[in-house]
Every structure is written in C-alpha cells, then in structure tokens.
Amino acid sequence: MVIRLRGLCNGRVNTAQRCCFSTWTQQVASGQNVAMLTYTPEAEAFRVEVKAWLTENLPKGWFNEGFEMTSDERKKFNLEWPSRLHAGGWICATWPTEYGGKGLNTLQGVVLAEEFANAKAPMRADFFGDTLVGPTLLQWGTEEQKKEFLPQILSGKMRWCQGFSEPNSGSDLASLKTTAILDGDEWVINGQKVWTTQGHHADYCFLLTRTDLNSPKHAGISYLLVPMRQPGVEVRGIVQPDGTAEFCEVFFTNARCSKENVVGGINNGWKVANSTLAFERGMSATTGYRRFEEEFRIMLATAKENGAIKEDSIRQRLMKYYSKYQILRYNGLRSLGATLEGKKDMGVIALGATNKMYWTEMHKEAMELALDIFGAHSMLIDNGPTESGWPGAQRDKRREGYPVSPMMSAFFFSRSETIWGGTSQIQRNIVGERVLGLPKEPKGADEK
Q: Residues 6 or more apart from 2 whose CB is under 8 A from it?
C-alpha cells in the first residue's frame, strides 16, 4: 500500500500504476487494509445485545439493500425513534445508572456507537444536551443541578443551545463581553451571542458570561444555565447562502436565571467550557471517519462511471483522500487507547487538537474533489447525488423559495467545519504553545 501511495503521488501515472490503482480500488471496495481493534469478550457480548435490539426495533426491511421510506414513513420514524431509544436506555447510555444511564464503560460505549453506525441508525436525540452540557454537568454540576437537568435531557423534554461566540469574540472567546450581575437570588444577563445553533428551538442555553469585570479575562467568566423562553431573550435566525437558518443571533436584555445555575463555581467558567469543547472534539473515536469513507466510495463509483477516473489528478486526489481518512481512523484508535489507559497528558491534548484540524481541513479538500468529479452542475437542485445518497447533506432544512441540492448543502457545510468547535488557527496555537512550548502569540494593543 505504501508503494502504491508513493507511486500515485508523483503526478505521472503510467500504465503499470493504473493497474495498481485498479487493484487498490478492489481492495478498498472489499474492505481490506483496515486496522482492527481487539475487543474484550464482555464488549463482544454487549455488541450482540445491541445488534439484536436494532434488528427488533428498526423498521422492517431497514437492512435490505435499496431500502427507502416514503416521506410520511420517515416523518413517523423521526417522531417515534427518540422514544424507542429512551425506552431502550440507549440515550446517554454511558451515564451512571443513578442519573438514568446504563453505566456503560468506555469500550461498551464505543461498541454502541459502532453498531448504530453499522446499522446507519440515528443515535442522539439532542447533540447539545446529550453530548455537551450533559457530560459537563456530570463532571462539574452540583447534585441539585444533576437531578434537575439530567432527567429532562435524557427524556428529550429539554432542548439546548450553546451560547459561547459573540460578534467580536469568536476565536478569542475569552474576550467575551456578555455580563451577568447578581441581583438577589438571580443573575441578570445582558449581551449578545452569535452563531447559536438551534437557538430558535432551545429551551435552555449553556452560556458563558463575564461575572467579574475586574479579573483577567480568562478568570472572570462563569458558565450559566439560562432559560431561553423568557422576556429579555430575543432570537433571530441568520439565513445562510444555502437557505438554511439553523444559526442564530441571541440578544439578552435583563434576562434572568437562578443564582444556583452556575456550573463549576463562579468565575470558573473557562475551565468548565474547555471541558465542554473537549467532549465535542473527542467523541466517535472509531466511527468519526465513516461518513468520509462513504463519501469516498460514492466519489470513486461516480468517477469510474463518468470517466473522471481517467484523469491523473483525480486518481491522485482520491488516493490522498483515502489515505487521510484512514489516518483519521488510526488517530481515533490512538485517542481511544489513551482514554482506556487514563492518559491526560499533553500528548492527548495535542491529539484532540490535531484531529480536529486534520479532518475539517481534509473535508474541505474532499468536497472540492467531489465537485470536480460530479461537475459544477451538481450544485444545481436537480443534479448530483440524492439526499439519501450523500452523507454530508443537511436534510430537511430548506427554506421555502430557496431550494438547495445535497451537494451544495454539503459543500457549504464543509466550509464551516474548520470554524466550529475551535478554529484551525486556535488548534495550532494550542499545539504550538501548550505542547511544543513555543512562545505565545503576541497580544494585540487592546489585550495588553
């Protein structure tokens, strides 16, 4: 495999190398050259349990090739599936049993994610609740906060959004200006947040605010749980070029929350927020690469069908994409190994930061490759892959009067991936300063 990679990366592909590429594509299609992870007998027994549950609870014919649901069937499934997941105990299954989870260990959690991915079954009811604020509360929350909020996250009765970024505090999050001032038993909140995904649907926001104006900027921040449906909270959707409006601006004007809704202690919000971001960056160790694998297979099949595979540059870029998402898979296994061994050193921090940089920048290049294979016309509404056939498409989010093709949706979304969860520039600073020990980035005049 290494020889083939080198041979196809020199820009001059001869007849013999084309034969190698043909052999390689057959190996990829048959699933060869893939690293394996050895699981414990207990984990494999749990895998059987998960498979059996999925077989019993997914719609009849789900596993048949070419299975499709009508729009009405899909709508009914989407409404009923979260309740089935909750009844089965699969939502937040790694949480301790006293808080409604199954108490799964790390490896069992990996098996659960793998089997849902294998079945292409949706797993999470609420990303922000299940994956971000829930684990944050388990780590930092008081017992009262856990008892109040965790059951509602598990049941899906409470939806969440994240209030971190501000118009002038994106990458430099610690410069945020939104304030919270204690007034008796309540915090009074004033300020603005932006790029607040699903803010128009959320019941609560986990919000970073400045609670000490006189402390250094990292030290005066608190992490609050704020109800969204109250006077003083205004949400405005931000319409994107593809017609979606899942990002929002949120304005707080004397909004309020209980003084008990501080997570992790007053002025300790920076540490708490970093925990939340770590949960976002560290999930799906052995499944995160799979949507890229599926995209690759679609691109490869289309290139062979329409003749694009004959172009040297297309073959080379396909090889590059394949190599990169395999590296992503190996890095996921490295992250999992570090987690299972309980490692929390700088190497683990670096791996999380570099993985985030790596896959988002990889995917931007991959979507440019997809356009070159499918053609620019695939951005038109009636051309290109269908929604069900393109993993990166953002489904069911078209604004009336502004239809968007799955390819256009996936292409635009890939441009945003290098921003959310910490920009690539910030990830490079983390690696450079905290891992390599390089001098810190010079401060601007307003930061000194």
A: none
Q: Which of 280, 293, 295, 417 is catalytic?
A: 280
Cα separation, 367 vs 149, in Å, equals 39
Q: Which residues of 350-388 are buried (b: 16+ CB within 10 A; e: fewer)?
A: bbbbbbbbbbbbbbbebbebbbbbbbeebbeeeebbeee
Residue type, 268: N
pLDDT 10s per residue in the chain (448 long)? 232 333 333 333 333 333 333 343 444 444 444 455 678 899 999 999 999 999 999 999 999 988 888 888 988 998 899 889 988 999 889 899 999 899 998 889 889 988 998 998 988 767 889 888 999 999 999 999 999 999 999 888 899 999 999 998 766 788 899 999 999 999 999 999 998 988 999 999 999 999 999 888 889 999 999 999 999 999 998 877 666 677 899 999 999 999 999 999 999 999 999 887 666 544 566 778 888 998 999 999 999 999 999 999 999 999 999 999 999 888 888 877 777 776 666 555 666 667 788 888 999 999 999 999 999 888 887 777 776 567 655 544 445 556 677 888 888 888 888 887 678 888 888 788 877 888 987 766 555 5
Confirm whether 280 is a catalytic residue. yes
Nearest to 295, CA basis, from 367, 202, 223, 220: 367
pTM of the model: 0.77
Which of these, 378, 129, 203, 401, lies nearest to 392 by C-alpha position?
A: 378
How many beta carbons lie within 10 A of that of residue 314, not counting itself? Answer: 18
- In angstroms, the Cα distances linking 111 to 49, 52, 94, 398 are 10, 13, 11, 34
CA atoms within 13 A on the CB side of 397: 20
User: For residue 94, what are the contacts with CB-CB under 8 A and spacing of at least 6?
Assistant: 101, 102, 103, 104, 105, 106, 108, 109
